[in-house]
Amino acid sequence: MTYNPSIISASDYTTGEVDTGTKWHNGKAIFKKTLTGIAGAAVGVQVDTAHGISTLEEIVGFEGIADDGTNQFPITRNFNGARLGWFADQTNFSIRADVSSGVGQTTHVTLYYTKA
Fold first, then answer.
1. Domain ranges, residue 82
2. What is the pTM for the complete model shown?
3. pLDDT-derived band of residue 116, with 50, 70 and 90 as boundaries?
4. Of 32, 56, 80, 111, which residue has the fewest beta carbons closer than 10 angstroms?
């Protein structure tokens, strides 16, 4: 999975589901939804939040930032040594701080996805 700026539409960012008006390589519509969360209270503590995406099939891209109250920085997807990492499954969006500087940070991640 990689970030793909070509699928970002000009529509507003919202916590509701938006059809981007673009298609994935298999012809399926690409939707987007912005999720907000807070990293766990300690290193390695994972916080799971229901994302509310019905029939999620495939995440095709993402973008995100974290805010520690002073600085904002991009969120990576990799848990191995990343300051913050995230993943999504059929039910939840999960965020975890892998080093102490990521603990308790507010996160905003926009997922781009297809539906079954």
1. 15-115
2. 0.79
3. very high
4. 80
